[in-house]
Amino acid sequence: MVDLNRTDAVDRHDPPEWMDTLVRLRDPHCVYPNCERSSWDADLDHIDPYQPLGEGGPSGQTRPENLAPLCRRHHLMKTHGRWRYRRARDGTYIWTSQHGRTWLVTPQGTHDTSQPG
């Protein structure tokens, strides 16, 4: 049984099995706007990019609130395509494209939140 309220952090890049399972149960799909790929077929991404401790990275970077499932395509877009996102306290995700457009990703779907014009 996995406690979905657990917030422990670890000082390594790869999450332990319990954390991996928690994130995939919490977010059943890739959290990129309009993507429906299963989280079980996705990478777990550090929302704030992981920096090794030996290279000055802070302790506790690998924790449920800093991880989200991204399918490989969207993981690469985030890493190399200048997309960024954050996880809000309510569990939704706010994405910003390299051009400044924004989307809100909720369990009910994706909403374009960019201002017209």
Report on this structure.
With 117 residues, the protein is α+β, with helices and mostly antiparallel strands. It has two helices and six strands; from the N terminus they run H-E-E-H-E-E-E-E. It has helices at residues 17-26, 72-80; strands spanning 43-46, 67-70, 84-87, 93-96, 102-106, 109-112. The strands form two sheets. It has a four-stranded antiparallel sheet, with no helix packed on it. Strands 1-2 form a two-stranded antiparallel sheet.
List keywords for this structure.
117 residues; two-stranded antiparallel ribbon; globular
What does the secondary structure layout of this molecule look like, with pairings?
Layout: H1 17-26, E1 43-46, E2 67-70, H2 72-80, E3 84-87, E4 93-96, E5 102-106, E6 109-112
Antiparallel strand pairs: 1-2, 3-4, 4-5, 5-6
In short:
By secondary structure, the protein is α+β, with helices and mostly antiparallel strands. The protein contains two helices and six strands.
SSE string, helices as H and strands as E:
HEEHEEEE
- Strand elements, count: 6
- Bulk shape: globular
Rg over CA atoms: 14 Å
Count of DSSP helices? 2
Main beta-sheet annotation: 4 strands, antiparallel
- Strands across the major sheet, in which order? 3-4-5-6
State the low-pLDDT regions, or none. Answer: none
Distance between the termini: 49 Å
The SS-based structural class is: alpha+beta
Mean pLDDT: 95
